[in-house]
Description:
The protein is mainly α. The chain is built from 19 helices and five strands.
Amino acid sequence: xxxxxxxxxxxxxxxxxxxxxxxxxxxxxxxxxxxxxxxxxxxxxxxxxxxxxxxxxxxxxxxxxxxxxxxxxxxxxxxxxxxxxxxxxxxxxxxxxxxxxxxxxxxxxxxxxxxxxxxxxxxxxxxxxxxxxxxxxxxxxxxxxxxxxxxxxxxxxxxxxxxxxxxxxxxxxxxxxxxxxxxxxxxxxxxxxxxxxxxxxxxxxxxxxxxxxxxxxxxxxxxxxxxxxxxxxxxxxxxxxxxxxxxxxxxxxxxxxxxxxxxxxxxxxxxxxxxxxxxxxxxxxxxxxxxxxxxxxxxxxxxxxxxxxxxxxxxxxxxxxxxxxxxxxxxxxxxxxxxxxxxxxxxxxxxxxxxxxxxxxxxxxxxxxxxxxxxxxxxxxxxxxxxxxxxxxxxxxxxxxxxxxxxxxxxxxxxxxxxxxxxxxxxxxxxxxxxxxxxxxxxx
Length: 444
Ligand SMILES: Cc1cc2nc3c(=O)[nH]c(=O)nc-3n(C[C@H](O)[C@H](O)[C@H](O)COP(=O)(O)OP(=O)(O)OC[C@H]3O[C@@H](n4cnc5c(N)ncnc54)[C@H](O)[C@@H]3O)c2cc1C
């Protein structure tokens, strides 16, 4: 008789289009879906509060979906390999399958686990599931997104759908209670409930709705934060409640080219982090590592609370706090404002987004911040500094977005004056570039 197979679930909390799960079911024996909360697994980037809030519900939904098929979800806490040793001994499983992740800490952990399991005679196998093109498929020099996109289009292959298993037999094993939510959760995250339906079925419904109504307006409408023409799929994709392959299959290329390009940006971020594990820590552009950021906790607090006096910035920061999500255009404007108008280190903004975004993704977030601060790849020339007032007039002309998040309350006075802030940023960026040029001249 086939011995049990463990499916190690991470950011792939779904039953359909899940290659590791499908391969485990295909072996014919019992299958044990296992989620391990491993505090040591993510280095400095343990999931933030909003992501943990999402994760807690997502695991509950997955458990219900598994129960409906006769299976169950086993939850455990502890260092991954120690958990495996215990669970393998208890179940007699002889194989562990998982879908690959690509963060530096994730790769290190998975490589170590795979080696240890194989050494112990356990069949450890990993699968591609979380991206459309894996970072290691793209070789050679890739200087920009447009080059990546060309390569990506050539490498992308149609992935046939994998149905969710109809029945599952899971070995009886106790779950542990996972303390996922931070202690301050009662004061903040519960209000996120109003904005989201969590889980695989909800992700599919959102995709169906977007294909039905949003995608045809996406190319133009995606820049307008009030319009609702974006998919809102990011937290579902971040937690793996839906696969990018399923999203791609549902969107016809003739209708959804601009949208599919954004899926390529997602893979590009994963690729950048794979190539440069320090992406969340260090500027990709060496010339920008010497920027003299300002230490200004009061201004950082005003930005976080949405009290800068710039309406579009404040509306975005309040949308983030209220819903755990912010429209992409406004993410760019708020990030640019923090780094250029306030001249505050992008790493503070990145950390705030990490804690508060339900779609927090190490690669996307780091790339977005490096791009917005003009310190990374494909970044706009730093001389191009978004004017938050002009951006509001252009992308929220009737003020609907700003009104939605700011209401009729009196607006605070601007904490910086646009022209002066712009001049200060240009000087600081220019000085950093000059310092590097000077050093290069000196070396020559
Ligand atoms: C400063 C900053 C920080 C960001 N942090 C994150 C983050 O932590 N997690 C995250 O998922 N996205 C992040 N983004 C990218 C982008 O803002 C979101 O993916 C997008 O707003 C999600 O909304 P949506 O699902 O409606 O996107 P849609 O426009 O419907 O796009 C579909 C999917 O494509 C992917 N995508 C779209 N735009 C981008 C992009 N610019 N970069 C990478 N992937 C993209 C997302 O997975 C998204 O769900 C960040 C952008 C910036 C400027």
